[in-house]
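Morning, I've got a small favour to ask if you have a moment. It would help a lot if you went through both lines with me. I owe you a coffee for this, so here goes:
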Amino acid sequence: MPRRAIAVAGPASQRRLASGGVHYNEPTGRLFGEQPPAPGQKRVKQDWENIYYYGFGGSMLLGAVLIYYKPDTSIEGWARKQAKEKMAAAGETPSYQKSE
């Protein structure tokens, strides 16, 4: 009985996943399927385009500003701050000599 149940379940699951035939959109050579405007006319923007352009550009600009001004969280920055605090507490001032 289990063998028959497996054999019956096999083709049913294959039929269920079938797409019903070949679906192929013939390429037209047009970008996004839009027809070019007549000569002398401008392309009319859709309602969502300005929202997308300004929203995407603004978020990229905001991201760049936030990355530029992010706090230093590296171990080197923390160690530099600790060393400066220790030297200031000891009354030492760092002197930078040019190495030869």
